[in-house]
Amino acid sequence: MNIKKFLIIIIPLFVFKYLYTADSDLSSYQFLNSFYSPRLSALGGSHPTIKGDLDAIFGNPAGLAYLKNTRIMINYNNHLLDFNNAFLGIHYPLNDYFNISVGLLYMDYGKFERVDEFALKTGEKFDSREMSLQSSFSGYLLDWVSYGATLKYIYSNIFHYSASAVAADLGILISVPYLYGLDIGLNIKNLGKSIDAFDQTKEDLPFVFSVGMAKHFMKDRHSIYFGWTQLPLYTSDNTQLYKKFSIGLESIPIPALKIRVGYNNGTRNNLMIGDYSGVLGISCGFALEVGSQQLAYGYSNYGELGGVHLFGFSYTFQTSQKREASSNGSSQARVIFELNEIPPPQQVQYRVVSGQLLISWRGFEGATYNLYARHGDDPNWTKMNSKPLEDNFVAFKKPKVPGFYYFKITAVYQGKESYFSEQLEIIID
């Protein structure tokens, strides 16, 4: 059984088993749902549509399929009450269709004063910590549907007592065909069971079900993320279903700078005291990129409890990968593509609007594009545009001559042109 069939079968089984039984707010191992990513913290939530970034390991592992280079990431957070948590992770693409990521989450709660049953100090101190060692796998079910799965070993320690568990996160991310820049994500987190207990009772894990969508504008320079995170579907109170939403805005005014703001309504409802909540639930942050290095910062406001600052550093390695490219639509040629070269456009698709043929594709920031076409059995490709195309789409009158039409797109960046995108075939009646 291949991994695609396995996911199609196993995901519904897990959903039906946990969907109406697990209570995320009352479960143990709550550190699994803390923020470890400056980006997600700044955007207000663990949005299941984050992709092309190692931060997706916290939101939806399906988003890791879009990260096509080797990257390491180190995040640190001085949490409320001087709790400290950190994350160390690495992502490695095995090929164009399968990726692996490995990470370690660590939460340190610091030192505590031990007291007896009468709340009298004994003079003894103890510490408490939790960790999660995890490995993620991601790839594509279709060109526009990615999947991801994360396996986790979880350990918790308080004084002389410890507990452990195993769990999995599963996710799907859809780049909606014919609607450029629209993504829909779904993920379930912390499916699993305790192995060892602190005492006699094995604690439940904080099961999380999240759905969301994202819309990208102006060649992905501006993005809106909206999601229902940690949906409490076990409850009979329907008002709870829409209280835990979050929204985030991300903008890239210049290539080296990303600005982020967000709002988490669940945080606001949970921590609001009386009728006044101020800026509770508001978050913000930024990321600076210099070459292969990125420094990120995120801030979340928790009202009377204070604010949380997250810091992150990531480094991208320029590695080589093999990928397949079509040659005249008839044979497959194996080519070597260096990541510091120009990648071709992806997800080339079309639709007919008011008698016009609209062809769209997914490119990247700063690139222009060329459209090539051929008709029928003609083996020669003809460049259709006289000037570089600045948008990620082109529209022209539907051809009057019936038959098979083939289209390919190239990207042009800093004077270099990529090789052809995948071939788009259109039948004109």
Structural overview:
It is built from five helices and 24 strands. It is mainly beta and 429 residues long. It folds into two domains: 315 residues, Porin; 108 residues, Immunoglobulins (Immunoglobulin-like), CATH 2.60.40. A hairpin with a 4-residue loop joins strand 8 and strand 9. The longest helix has 16 residues. About 5% of the residues have low confidence.
CATH topology of the largest domain: Porin
Q: Give the CA-based shape.
A: elongated
Helix content: under 10%
CATH architecture annotation name of the largest domain? Beta Barrel
Strand content: over 45%
The DSSP helix count reads: 5
Order of strands across the main sheet: 1-2-3-4-5-6-7-8-9-10-11-12-13-14
Number of domains: 2
CATH class of the largest domain: Mainly Beta
Distance between the termini: 40 Å
Largest sheet: 14 strands, antiparallel, barrel
Q: Uncertain segments of ≥5 residues (pLDDT<50)? A: 320-340
Set out the fold topology.
Elements: H1 3-18, H2 38-42, H3 56-59, E1 70-78, E2 84-95, E3 98-115, E4 121-142, E5 145-158, E6 161-175, E7 182-196, E8 208-217, E9 222-228, H4 240-243, E10 245-254, E11 257-264, H5 265-271, E12 282-290, E13 293-301, E14 307-317, E15 320-327, E16 331-338, E17 346-353, E18 356-362, E19 368-375, E20 382-383, E21 393-397, E22 403-413, E23 416-417, E24 424-428
Antiparallel strand pairs: 1-2, 1-14, 2-3, 3-4, 4-5, 5-6, 6-7, 7-8, 8-9, 9-10, 10-11, 11-12, 12-13, 13-14, 15-16, 17-18, 18-21, 19-20, 19-22, 22-23, 22-24
